[in-house]
Each structure stands twice: as C-alpha cells, then as structure tokens.
Amino acid sequence: MLQTSDLLRVSFRQVIRQHKRYLGVLLSIALGTAGFIVILTMGEEVKSNLNKDLDLLGGATIIKAFFEQGSTSESQMARPEWFHDVTVDAVDQIPGVNGTTLLTLAAGQTTQDDREVNIPMFGVDENFWTVMGIKATQGELFGAEAQEKRHRVVVLGELAAEKIFGRTDVVGERVMINSALYHIVGTLDPGNQIDRAKWAYVPLNTLRARMFNLLPRRLYIRCNTWDDVPLVAAALPQVIKQHQNANTLTVEVAWEPLKHIKRIVWWVEMFVYFSIVATLGLGGFGIWNGMMTAVKSRTREIGLKKAMGAEDWDIMIQFLSESTCLSLTAGILGVGLGYAGVLAAAHILHSSPPLDQFYVYGAASIAFALFIGIGAGFYPSLSAARMDVVAAIRYE
C-alpha cells in the first residue's frame, strides 16, 4: 500500500496530466465556491449599503415617530408633547438603530422682486442628511457647528430656489425669510422625493431661537437593515415611555414597501443560491463523469495492479484520492477567486473587507469541496475496486 504522501503526489500528478479533461470541472467548482464565499462574506455589507440608498428602498427602513394633537378639548388645551434629548439618546441605543434625527416644520415667507413667496421651512439637526439619504447638488449641507452655534444658514431645495430666484445656482447668496437674513450654503438633490425640493432647511436650534413655541415633535429613525425595522418599531414606544409622557405618540412604518422589498430580495437570494448550488452540482457530476471515464480508460492498469498484489482497498483509495485532489484543487482556486471578489466588492462599497468572515467561509468552502470530491468519486472508485482481474487484463 502506498504511503499517504506518495498517494497524494501520484494523485495530484494525475490531475495535472489530465488537466484538459478536468478544466471545465475545475472552473465550475471554483466559480461556485468563489460565489459562495463572496455572497456570504459580503452579504451583510451589501445589505447595509442598500439600506443607505433610501430613494431606492422608498424609505422602507425609516420609522417615523411623532406626537399627535389630542382629539378631546382637554387634551387640546394641554401643553403639546415633544421629544426630549434624553429620549433621543435612549432611542439611539436601541439595537438595530443606525441614526436618528429631530425636525420641526414652520411656515416661511420671503419677498423677491416685489412678490411674496411662501416656502415651508424645516428645522433639522445635523443628522438629517444621513438619516434621510440626502446629498447636495451644489454647495454643502450644514453640520453640527451650524446647529450648535445657531448659524443663520439655509439649504434650499431646487424647486424652492427656482420659486424664489427663478434659477438654481444660488449658493453664496442671501435670502430674507420671516424677517431674518439667511446665507444659502447649498441646494439639495431631492431624489425620488420631489416634495423635498420645495422646502427650505435651516438648523433646528436656529429656528427654535427665533420661534420659542416651536418644538421638535417629529423623530425619524433609520434602521441598519430592513430586518431590524420590526424589532425597532416594537421597542420604540416602550423606550420613549420610560423617559417621557407618550400618550399621544404615533409610530409609522412603511410596512407595504418593506414587505415588497424583502420579497424581492428573498427571490434574488434564492436565485443566486440556486445558481451556486447548480454550479457546484454540475461540478460534482463532472467529477463523477470524469472519474468513470478514467476508470474505463485505465481498466488494464487496474487489472495489472491487482495481478501484482494490489488489494481492492488500494485501488479504491487511489481513485478516491484522485477525485478528492481534483475537488481540493478546484476549492483552493475558488477560495483565491473568492478573496479577489471580496476585495473588489469591498472596494466598490468603500468599506473594509471582513477578513474574519472570509476565513470562516473559506475553510467551509474547502471542506465542502472535499465532500464533493469524496461523494462524486466514491462510486467510480468502488467500481474500479470491484473489477475482475482477468477481465480487466484482457480489456481492450
């Protein structure tokens, strides 16, 4: 019986000799393995980046919480509730929450060329842009400094700029809104939400300093992924109640768009996984077919080895070793391609590749490739081991 090292050396040499026959099998298993590694390794990262594109998702990962005006005369006379800072901090700590933003709405009016123009004003904090997925088309979006120091700056939606000035290139100019002069620092891209282009956005603290009765009664919460939305929505009322009165609290979730998105993603995932399984299955069938051909073409060799004293077990182990080496070679090639795919995906997503997960899935892929090799090569190896010596030697 050959030693293990000699057996592996002979098996790998046989795979190299027959590389043209096994090329399709190698590529099939390698590509299937690479796809398996990339999808599982980068799956969460891809999902996280998809959730950042709120226009694509229709705001499905945004939860809106607000306090409604009471319906009874008693509740209407009571002081309206608003979100306290300690409440917002607590909401930020809920597992699955990616970010929160406070905002309030006020009526705005300006005069341009002797005509009055009504512009809705939104007082927003520095987190509003990232939570809502808004980008600037010109200039910049104000940040924490403008919020903290109550700067009189404004970001105009493109339709609002067109309505006031008759054009959109207004960055750097000044506009008088509600008798206060604001510096225009940027215009924004409304995406698919056209209403955003009709508004003027100023720092929340700036707006509240001029309108003392203006309270932040709206809180928008963005979740990490669509899977976190139901959990966060369920936990939100209880967390808010722990820090303030929440009798008139309303929580809105876009359940229908969320279900639609999850349904689409589920089908896409099923299609991808089915494709990978089919590719690996074809690779396993290729190994089986290739080993059956190898057994048939080496029938006389098998007969001669048996005549020289080789046991059935020796013959079986040799062919099984060849199929395992073939699948192992394909698995190693697939891990290499998978590593390149992970690096490429991380570069496209502007993130760091999760190498810890890659190592885990890479090892699992090697183990699975070995399983395919052993499973696909077992019957051909058994057929070779059971050959009759005389019939095998006489085979032409």
From TrEMBL:
The keyword Transferase does not apply. Its main location: membrane. InterPro entries: ABC3_permease_C, MacB_PCD, Macrolide_Exporter_MacB. It is a multi-pass membrane protein. GO terms for molecular function: transmembrane transporter activity. One of its GO terms (cellular component) is plasma membrane. The chain crosses the membrane at residues 21-42, 264-288, 325-346, 358-379. Residues 274-388 form the ABC3 transporter permease C-terminal domain. This is ABC transporter permease. It comes from Oceanidesulfovibrio marinus.
